[in-house]
Amino acid sequence: MEKTKYPDSNIPAELSEEVIRQDSMRPTQKWGLSTKIWLAFLFSVAGWGLFAYIHQLRGGLGVTAMRNYVSWGLYISTFVFFIGISHSGTLVSAILRITKQDWRMPITRIAELMTFVSLCFGGIMPIIDLGHPERIGNLVIFGRVQSPLMWDVMSIITYFVGSTVFLWLPMIPDMALMRDRLTDTTKRFDKFRKWLYTKLAIGWTGSKTQWKKLELVMTIMTIVIIPVAVSVHTVVSYIFAMTLRPGWNSTIFGPYFVAGALYSGSAIVILAMVIFRKLYHLEKYITYRHFDLMGRVVLALTLIYAYLNLNEYWIPGYKMATAEGHLLHDLFSGSYSFEFWLCQFGTVLLPIIIMCFPKGRTPGSLAFVCTLIAIGAWVKRYLIVVPTLLHPFLPIQDVPSSWSQYFPNWVEWSVVMAALSGMLIIVTLYAKFFPMMSMWEVVHGAKVEESKRVAAEMVKHEEVETHNPEIAKATV
Amino acid sequence: MDNTNEHESKGSKETDRRKFLKFGFLAAGLTVVGGGIEKVLSTEKTENPDTTVFTRDGKVFKADLNCLHEYVVPPVTNEEARKGIAGKKFVMVFDLAKCDGCKKCTESCQAMHFTEPDREWIKVFKMKDAETTAAYFMPKPCFHCDNPPCTKVCPVGATFKRQDGIVLIDDDRCIGCRSCMAACPYSTRFFNWSEPMQPEAVAHVKYSPEHGFPRQRGTTEKCDFCPHMIRDGKMPACVSGCPMNAIYFGDQNEDAVTNSAGATLKFSQLLEDNSAYRFMEELGTEPRVYYLPPKNRKYPKPDLDANGKEIKSDEKKQDASKGMIM
Prior knowledge:
heterodimer, A: mainly alpha, 19 helices, B: Alpha-Beta Plaits, five-stranded mixed β-sheet
């Protein structure tokens, strides 16, 4: 039971449905100057990245810093990172739903959106990394199911379709509401919005049978999407783990990557929660309690990740067998030691320590902690991909210096930054068209909270009357 | 009626005779004139010598060089390149006791395949397994493994293993994902990051995975055991290019391997007598390349310090002044 009481721990009873709806829809009704400036900035970053990619298409992958030893670099590290954070939606929506955690209601849409955008761009990163992207059809014509890359393709496509459906299904009642409320369609933009809401609402009328169907389909999707999500990051780990290289030839890569994905994905959800709560004044809904609970979730996931991380490095580190030994020496005390220990202490241990304290699970602290986690997860992916490639079994001798060192160059950074801004563009546009809170779920959640509170009050009264202090204490 | 017919036939006979004579004179005249013209024109060609031509079944004849054109052997089709040569199982053996690290194998390979100077499809490594063990040179081509990690991970089947044991790459199908490069534990593969140079000699050849040109940007390349040479009954470039006769190449089915000196040995005997091994056997890739340990080595070992690091050039000079052969 909570020792500290947060000022607005439960959605107050006086919060009517209408207030919830107005608060959710307000951001979609006006496009301010700051939105336009923000979008202009994002589009210019994306535009620059597109120019860099066209430069790469014309000159070949040689315009990047990748060469014959480090044949996978920033693009593949970023691919793994993006697919990792795509586990955010699954966690919040599916796992919390299946465990009947009703406090998830205000944050499900944010989480599902983060999954959707990170899969969009996570999916195109390997295509950007191809030497012949125009031959992508060969994956269909000549595809081999024995290849881990094919498993990636199939798994990511399945998860992408699944999470798109998972994002869209709970939007339907909200789309119907917005369609019905949008009566003034004199402006062309509003005409477009009305069309959009109508199409997405697919004729929703709110009848009992429709609600039943929606609940049923969502339950099925919830159950199905969890193993799909687990399979996605597992097969992403297999493009490394199915090779013989030191550092990659590990049996725990599947669980290690999934744990890393869940931990970084949930951190991204918290960051999105902080931002949208601030931007759209959703303090009444995304409360300190939500941060406390999500903070505990991230703490638990970080602990699991830290445990797997420990196994991944301590077991070969104890033995220091020849090839693994050289790699680990480089990570522990060589050229990558700074990044490695910064990751371990700054982005795994420090977040754990901070989140153990209640003060560490406030929006401000969590914003800081989750930024560390997000950056740390990205650097960690880079540390998985690049050092192993610089420590092949055979010594690196008599090769051009560009082969034996690697640091991403402007082309790679530009393209990756463009992918990031692409994600943010989609998030921004989404937030301007659609409510960032699932209105019907929040209304439903508020009602459930209210009825729980009322029931608890009633039980407490009864027990006090029958002089049973144990139960009376427990219901406080 | 008879009169007219006779008259006509007489008349027509006359016409026929005249026609025939006319035609005859015309033909004769043309022949003379034509022959004369031809002689006049052909007087310019008479300097070209004839050449003696031997056929495969032992016949000899003279032929005008102008009538002879170089026959460009058409490359093998994609299907045949994927199937390989029936009944063969190619193997290669390196006698490390005879390797002096001269890198002539690399040079021959690069000359044959017109590869860029930094691409060493066969690379001579300076190896030192431990602080206390001896240094040695190890030339390493592609191992053409029987359990190849590279062909397993290719998502489109652009790299494949043939019935004769050779692993090839189909540049027309490769999407450039570099999974094969990640999977190969022997640093065997190279990627065409930028537009590769296209030497004039092979720029217009029809592509086949067996000879690998013209090269394509965005695809992978590696040692191919010179299949086009093998089909011609010759040795791969590195084998024939080795001045120390240290490289043997042959057919495991025939149990025979040959080196550049033409010495043909029994393959299984060679392995048995010299206690041959494969590099990193524990990886389980089943290489088709064997090494004979550098026992009683003929030539100096590489310049490596105790930790296997290359000694810098000034240090080398110092050691030379001490009169030691390192």
